[in-house]
């Protein structure tokens, strides 16, 4: 599209032409588009299933086949991948220019940016998507013929949006995916739309996310205005060039990271925008597992990792990321300790673990963050799915006080033991995957120089202990101890004739997925031990390789705010000095410290929730009855009053403002301006109506008369000049 | 001369098709007569293919004689557009001319009498009018332009008359014909003055004379200016532009819905193209060229008046066809913005807008043509209330097309309007664009009713009596047009490339005689690599 002479003012001028980046444009990889296409096809087919009221499991079959296809495509893509990355142009979306200058153009196409970071993400997104869809095929059974197709259509939308978010080669397509996953999340949280709480939760998720989305929209705009492009390859080229970087000084380069951060905190549920995620558990459990634990909520991590070079331009922003992440981790963990709804505990644990990932990003270990995303995706999905199996089998029962000793019940053994594996990983039990990925972050908090990073490190270690405690509180309560249960209130044909409740144990689809995920959660520790291909000085194995090849490595040599030896974003095995903890190298020390802290948390949980359950209640009663400590359990149970605080500070004033605006709109705007103004054209129309009498003669008179008037006026003007000079 | 005829290949195909229609329409075999729309569609496809062949001719401008036509590439876009919208239009017409007579013949009460049958000539006139539109964009001189415009219009007078046999359409046809003749007299008068002022009929030669005169004396002279003004105002009749717009509501209301769909688009497109060609004589496309102030002011006033009067007129209507007639007047006002914006972006925007308008307009009328209420056409807006309950497809077609006409993103009409407004702003007509924006807001009043009533309204007593016609054509037309309105924005970029290349002026051709290929747009695939 060429719009001749259209001038758009740009704040930054003098940006030199962007030369060809070192990324290869690879049209021969066009089949990679299947990752986007297959979920779309599945969406259409699920829509057809809904339209034709298919009563079988066809939608689930379609969706899992499509997602499996996308997963296979992703793996093929990985096998065909050569660093540093490739751009696969699918189709033109927006490609405008209005001049010949370098920034007189705007291009954002449907192109895929295949580098190791996007490959890492897309592989676990599609892989977990496939597994969870298979799980959901059984889990959603009670809705067969009702919402079944709608559910899988939502999952397909989500996968399409998530794939475009992860694979896009520009920020605008990422934005499209970003909004798309938000929409899919809204769709699926509100799946049980007859339930008011589900509708409220869906709205809450959507609205809170909008705050973050505003940040992303502004960030994309500022990036374009400042750097003249929103395409990663061009952006990277611009940022890597020493001379140009200095020309980008200005408020925009400082503002961009904070806006991106806002977006990431919204999507990934960090302070102050985390409040939507616990409520999002109103959705079906597979959705919680897929979207609100494993994949969508890590989009914020992905965004920051992808735009890491922009954060490096403003070092303070990373300190903010680290602190927000660390504090969120602690806060969410304390809330999680005091909840009774197991799904909600897992939700707070997700918020907390996401906090760890942001902490990792903030302390300059994108590798640690990415690795934790990777391992967390497995074990948290696993935990959610086991919770879902329990909820499914016990008619919606999620209260850990009303479930006990499940592992003794027939048919619940797989659920119990896979849940244990997930819990061990989450608790950071030595030599599980969570242990390695968490330690990578914790150690770096002590290594990297930054304001109060040491304090942050200790807080994170404390959080690790709390994590172990609340995780095993769930497991010891629900799966261990004497067998006893109380059914929930969502019955679907699980009573016998006498009205007695029988839990129905999960069958093949659920159990198989649980086992696969449990194996995955354990195996996720292995990449840590794999040798590094890219750079022999690196540790961290395969994941480190994947991060190293991407924009998440610090793109800018010599622009490091902290230790120059950490210019890799993950540390080198030799040749640099660290800080010390307790006289040891932090990485070595951390294995001991976090392992010990985790064990302490675990033993505490075992004492209070397995061996002497009465002590837990006694302790709670004792604490609540003491003035000096009584506020603590109360605040933790009431989630630190954050919802109430937001209600008072934000919602109530907005509610009042809304009503004032409504009154103003109703009486002033509508009453005077709109209705008043609306009367004007119609009044004119009534006044003109007689002209339209319809007789041919009068029409002809008006035609000729009008022509004559115009000609006369022009003649006068030409004779005596134009009013007000020239036109 | 042979080359010149080759250039007219699409129009010759249309003529052949018209003759074929006239013959097929006389056949005694009813099944054979029923193939008429198919004949028309085949003709349009053939004409499209012909245009492809013509515009791929190497050294096209040499074959024409250098600079013989002001906008030599215009046809490369206009002819496909005419073929496309013509196809949709003919589907709207399917099975409605002579309906009563044909059913009488089918039931055996009457024997088929070729003298009483009008179907054949109706489709022949349909094709001839479209051929006139194609010829308009290739006019090298004023005579050709006049004849082409009249070839576009004359068949429409007859189509209004024979479209249905009642007094209202006879009256409409008479009005249309008399006022059309008056307008033709007005613009012919302007043509005469232009000839008097320059001594030539050829547009390009005329431009050379006027540019030379402007270089000498600072203006193109008062006779030429007045001539141009009179011609523009007269051609404004085809557009239904103020002050020659008043016929539109009466005629559109009186004609049958399928005919209205036709006359709301075809003469309008012809008028817009004729104005582009006429304005080329001022040499404004050349280096440092601009419109004479009087012409600019006149067009400005025409544009502002047209859209305002059109929209205000539409507000009070309860008759859908009358409302759409007024709104089509308003659309002419928007089109004039693009014309004022000038060669290049402005003309390109006009062509895209014409496409969007043509499709949207045809779709709305296809819905009206697809409905009946007690054997009569559905005309009152209230009759559409709750249409969705029994005819969801038609209700959605109405909503989508009205949305596109209103300029609702992401439909094609939105992009058309955006391009027009951008072109207007870029050419410095900010005030006019603001007026157009206000007008768009006013138009929302009645377009939103067209969207909301069929979709969300509850059926009333009178709207319950509305039933769908059995005929397949109008529904197919509605679906096709709506699919295009939704789908074409995806092809906006290639379309704009084509259109940008098509509105290249003969002046830029002269600079660039050696290369016929359109200049590569800088936006093309500039991925680094």
Helix content of chain B: over 70%
Instruction: Give the proportion of residues in helices of chain A.
Output: 55-70%
Which assembly state applies to the chains in this document? heterodimer
Biggest beta sheet attributes of chain B: 2 strands, antiparallel
Order of helices and strands of chain B: HHHHHHHHHHHHHHHHHHEHHHHHEHHH
Counted beta strands of chain A: 5
Helices of chain A, by number, come to 26
Strand order of the largest sheet of chain B: 1-2
> Biggest sheet of chain A: strands, sense, closure?
3 strands, mixed
Strand content of chain A: under 5%
Number of domains of chain B: 1
Largest interface: which pair?
Answer: A-B, 59 and 56 residues
Explain what you see.
With 727 residues, chain A is mainly alpha-helical. Chain A has four domains: 1-310, no CATH class; 314-484 and 506-632, no CATH class; 638-692, no CATH class; 697-727. Chain A has 26 helices and five strands. A three-stranded mixed sheet of chain A has the order 1-2-3. Chain A has a two-stranded antiparallel ribbon with strand order 4-5. In chain A, helix 14 (315-337) runs parallel beside helix 19 (453-478). Chain A is globular and about 105 Å long. Chain A starts with 23 loop residues before the first strand and ends in a 7-residue tail after the last helix. The relative contact order of chain A is 0.08. Chain B is mainly α. Chain B has one domain. Helices cover 72% and strands 1% of the residues of chain B. Chain B is built from 26 helices and two strands. Chain B has helices at residues 2-7, 9-24, 30-33, 36-55, 60-64, 75-93, 99-107, 119-136, 142-163, 167-198, 203-217, 222-239, 247-254, 257-263, 266-279, 293-315, 320-341, 345-369, 387-390, 392-406, 412-426, 430-456, 461-464, 473-487, 492-502, 506-511, and strands at residues 371-373, 466-468. In chain B, strands 1-2 form a two-stranded antiparallel ribbon. The radius of gyration of chain B is 23 Å and the shape is globular. The model of chain B is unreliable at 509-529 (pLDDT under 50). The interface between A and B is large, with 59 and 56 residues.
């Amino acid at each position: 599209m060429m719009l001749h002479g259209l001038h758009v003012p740009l704040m930054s001028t003098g940006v030199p032409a962007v030369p060809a980046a070192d990324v290869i444009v690879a049209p021969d990889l066009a089949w990679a588009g299947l990752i986007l296409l297959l979920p779309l096809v599945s969406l259409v087919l699920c829509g057809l299933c809904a339209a034709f009221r298919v009563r079988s499991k066809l939608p689930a079959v379609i969706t899992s086949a499509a997602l499996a296809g996308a997963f296979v495509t992703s793996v093929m893509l990985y096998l065909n991948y050569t660093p540093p990355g490739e751009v696969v142009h699918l189709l033109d979306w927006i490609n405008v220019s209005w001049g010949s200058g370098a920034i007189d153009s705007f291009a954002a196409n449907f192109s895929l940016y295949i580098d190791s970071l996007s490959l890492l993400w897309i592989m676990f997104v599609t892989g977990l998507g496939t597994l969870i869809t298979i799980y959901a095929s059984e889990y959603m059974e009670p809705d067969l013929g009702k919402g079944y197709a709608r559910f899988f259509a939502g999952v397909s939308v989500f996968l399409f949006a998530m794939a475009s978010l992860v694979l896009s080669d520009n920020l605008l397509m990422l934005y499209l995916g970003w909004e798309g996953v938000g929409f899919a999340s809204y769709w699926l949280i509100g799946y049980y739309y007859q339930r008011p709480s589900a509708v409220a939760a869906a709205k809450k998720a959507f609205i809170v996310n909008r705050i973050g989305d505003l940040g992303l929209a502004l960030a994309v705009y500022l990036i374009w205005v400042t750097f003249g492009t929103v395409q990663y390859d061009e952006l990277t080229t611009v940022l890597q060039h020493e001379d140009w970087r200095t020309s980008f000084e200005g408020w925009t380069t400082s503002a961009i990271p904070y806006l991106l951060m806002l977006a990431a905190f919204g999507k990934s549920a960090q302070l102050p925008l985390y409040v939507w995620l616990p409520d999002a558990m109103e959705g079906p459990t597979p959705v919680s597992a897929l979207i609100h634990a494993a994949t969508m909520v890590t989009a914020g991590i992905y965004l920051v990792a992808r735009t890491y070079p922009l954060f490096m331009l403003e070092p303070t922003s990373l300190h903010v990321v680290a602190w927000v992440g660390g504090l969120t981790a602690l806060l969410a963990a304390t809330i999680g300790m005091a909840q009774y709804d197991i799904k909600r505990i897992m939700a707070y644990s997700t918020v907390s673990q996401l906090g760890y990932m942001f902490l990792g990003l903030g302390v300059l270990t994108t590798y640690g963050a990415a690795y934790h995303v990777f391992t967390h995706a497995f074990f948290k999905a696993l935990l959610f799915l086991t919770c879902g199996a329990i909820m499914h089998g016990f008619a919606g029962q999620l209260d850990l006080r009303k479930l006990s000793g499940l592992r003794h019940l027939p048919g619940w053994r797989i659920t119990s033991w896979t849940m244990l594996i997930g819990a061990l990983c989450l608790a950071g039990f030595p030599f599980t995957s969570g242990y390695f990925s968490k330690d990578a972050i914790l150690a770096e908090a002590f290594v990297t120089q930054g304001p109060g990073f040491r304090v942050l490190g200790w807080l994170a270690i404390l959080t690790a202990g709390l994590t172990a405690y609340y995780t095993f509180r769930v497991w010891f309560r629900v799966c261990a101890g004497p067998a006893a249960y109380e059914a929930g209130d969502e019955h679907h044909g699980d009573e016998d004739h006498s009205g007695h409740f029988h839990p129905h144990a999960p069958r093949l689809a659920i159990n198989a997925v649980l086992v696969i995920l449990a194996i995955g959660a354990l195996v996720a520790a292995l990449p840590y031990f794999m040798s590094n291909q890219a750079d022999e000085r690196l540790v961290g194995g395969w994941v480190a390789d994947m991060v190293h090849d991407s924009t998440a490595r610090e793109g800018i040599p010599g622009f490091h705010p902290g230790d120059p030896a950490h210019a890799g974003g993950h540390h080198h095995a030799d040749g640099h000095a660290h800080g010390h903890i307790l006289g040891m190298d932090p990485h070595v020390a951390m294995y001991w410290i976090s392992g010990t802290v985790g064990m302490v948390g675990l033993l505490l949980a075992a004492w209070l929730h397995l061996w002497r359950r009465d002590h837990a209640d006694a302790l709670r009663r004792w604490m609540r009855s003491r003035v000096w400590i009584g506020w603590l359990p109360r605040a933790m149970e009431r989630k630190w009053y954050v919802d109430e605080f937001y209600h008072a500070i934000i919602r109530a004033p907005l509610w009042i403002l809304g009503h004032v605006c409504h009154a103003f709109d109703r009486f002033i705007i509508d009453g005077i301006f709109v209705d008043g103004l609306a009367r004007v054209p119609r009044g004119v129309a009534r006044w003109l109506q007689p002209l339209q009498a319809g007789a041919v003669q009068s029409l002809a008179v008006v035609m000729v008369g009008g022509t004559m008037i115009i000609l006369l006026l022009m003649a006068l003007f030409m004779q005596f000049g134009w009013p007000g000079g020239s036109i | 001369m042979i080359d010149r005829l080759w250039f007219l290949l699409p129009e010759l195909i249309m003529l052949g098709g018209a003759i074929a229609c006239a013959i097929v329409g006389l056949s005694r075999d009813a099944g054979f007569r029923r193939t008429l729309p198919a004949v028309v569609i085949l003709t349009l496809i053939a004409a499209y293919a012909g245009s492809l062949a013509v515009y791929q001719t190497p050294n096209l401008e040499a074959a024409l004689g250098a600079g013989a036509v002001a906008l030599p590439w215009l046809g490369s876009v206009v002819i496909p557009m005419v073929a496309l919208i013509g196809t949709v239009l003919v589907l709207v017409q399917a099975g409605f001319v002579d309906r009563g007579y044909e059913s009488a013949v089918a039931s055996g009460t009457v024997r088929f009498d070729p003298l009483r049958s009008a179907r054949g000539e109706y489709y022949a006139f349909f094709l001839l009018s479209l051929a006139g539109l194609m010829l308009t964009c290739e006019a090298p001189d004023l005579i050709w332009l006049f004849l082409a415009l009249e070839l576009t219009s004359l068949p429409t007078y007859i189509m209004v008359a024979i479209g249905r046999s009642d007094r209202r359409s006879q009256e409409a046809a008479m009005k249309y014909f008399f006022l059309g003749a008056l307008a033709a007299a007005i613009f012919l008068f302007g043509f005469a003055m232009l000839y008097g002022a320059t001594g030539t009929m050829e547009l390009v030669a005329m431009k050379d004379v006027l540019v030379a005169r402007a270089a000498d004396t600072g203006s193109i002279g008062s006779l030429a200016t007045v001539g141009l003004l009179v011609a523009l105002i007269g051609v404004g009749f085809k557009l239904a532009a103020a002050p020659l717009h008043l016929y539109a509501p009466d005629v559109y209301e009186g004609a049958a819905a399928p005919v209205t769909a036709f006359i709301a688009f075809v003469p309008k497109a012809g008028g817009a193209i004729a104005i582009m060609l006429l304005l080329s004589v001022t040499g404004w496309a050349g280096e440092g060229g601009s419109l004479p102030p009087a012409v600019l002011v006149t067009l400005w006033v025409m544009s502002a008046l047209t859209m305002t009067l059109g929209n205000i007129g539409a507000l009070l209507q309860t008759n859908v066809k009358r409302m759409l007639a007024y709104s089509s007047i308003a659309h002419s006002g928007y089109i004039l913005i693009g014309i004022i914006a000038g060669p290049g972006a402005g003309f390109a925007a006009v062509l895209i807008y014409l496409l969007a308008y043509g499709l949207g307009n045809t779709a709305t009328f296809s819905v009206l043509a697809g409905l009946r209420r007690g054997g009569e056409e559905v005309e009152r807006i209230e009759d559409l209330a709750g249409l969705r309950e029994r005819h969801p497809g038609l209700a959605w077609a109405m909503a989508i097309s009205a949305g596109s006409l209103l300029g609702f993103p992401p439909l094609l009409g939105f992009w058309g309007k955006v391009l027009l407004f951008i072109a207007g702003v870029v050419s410095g007509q900010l005030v006019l664009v603001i007026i157009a924006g206000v007008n768009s807001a006013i138009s929302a009043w009645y377009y939103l009713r067209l969207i909301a009533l069929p979709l969300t309204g509850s059926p009333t007593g009178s709207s319950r009596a509305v039933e769908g016609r059995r005929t397949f054509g109008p529904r197919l037309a509605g679906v096709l047009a709506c699919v295009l309105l939704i789908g074409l924005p995806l092809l906006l970029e290639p379309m704009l490339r084509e259109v940008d290349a098509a509105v290249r002026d003969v002046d830029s051709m002269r600079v660039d005689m050696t290369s016929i290929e359109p200049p590569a747009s800088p936006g093309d695939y500039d991925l680094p690599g």
